[in-house]
Amino acid sequence: MTAIVETKNLTRYYGEQLALNHLNLQIPVGAVYGFIGPNGAGKTTTMRILTTLLQPSGGEAWVAGLSVTQQRAEVRRVVGFMPDSFGFYNNMTAAEYLDFFAAAYHVPPARRRALIDDLLALVDLAHKRDSDVMSLSRGMKQRLSLARTLIHDPQLLILDEPASGLDPRARVELRELLRELRRLGKTIMISSHILTELAEMCTHIGIIERGTLLASGDVETIMRSLRPHRTFAIHVISDIATAAEIASTADHVLAVRTINDDGPPRIEVDIDGDDHAVSALLARLVSNGTAIIHFAAQTGNLEEIFLKVTEGIVGS
């Protein structure tokens, strides 16, 4: 898959403090890339270099094939950046705010009205078109800022802690908006130190700690590398003990656990075989009279990935 972002030995010092340590990462076109790490890990430094707002001390980075050090103006045309803190001007409506940035990006005046209306509709702020930006809630300001990053139709969106300070409803709205932007063909790089904010939207992740990239790639591949077997949750309405015994005798089954909690009775099965082994397990259960209402692979979560990757590094 073609990479829209690539870095090679990207390094940044602040005085004698090493903030980025020979960072090598790739972000494929169309990905939602979660950039994960604690505060001070190097996330914002990386993003500011990719958006040409900060020069690296060493190494190189490319966005859409353009050098962030040699082709800064061209890079800015293909990137939309939403920093972790952003300013708004007093006595300016939401439409005027977007018009100001449209002019800065040389959008022709004849196109601006329709463009601004489309962007306000996209972020569900059409009803706030003529409202003063300072009267908007924080969630609305976040969405307006995101609309501003889209004003020049960038290929890549770089969002630094976009959900910071939002209430639960605003976070849900932001997630839905990011899903829509991906459907529209945008590649999204989004940072956070709160893993639950990214768990439901990322296709790829990068884990950074103390300026060093510890892991990067698609979520499924990273999970397989950390946990070579797969775990299947099987909900049954027949005798659960019998189902567990049947599953335990199937080929490639490593372990079987019986779960009796507030949810439906189920077993969890660890299996190290391929899809044929999984199919054989299901067939074995059904042929032996197990009444199954749910059979699905469990997906790992970002907390599990982060803790395993950073084990012995974070806090040392």
From TrEMBL:
Residues covered by the ABC transporter domain: 5-235
Record keyword Nucleotide-binding present: yes
Record keywords: ATP-binding, Nucleotide-binding, Transport
Pfam families recorded: ABC_tran (PF00005), DrrA1-3_C (PF13732)
Coiled coil segments of this chain: none
GO molecular function, one term: ATP binding
Highest taxon, organism lineage: Bacteria
GTP-binding as UniProt keyword: no
Signal peptide start and end residues: none
UniProt record similarity statement: Belongs to the ABC transporter superfamily.
Name the record gives this protein: ABC transporter related
Taxonomic source organism: Chloroflexus aggregans (strain MD-66 / DSM 9485)
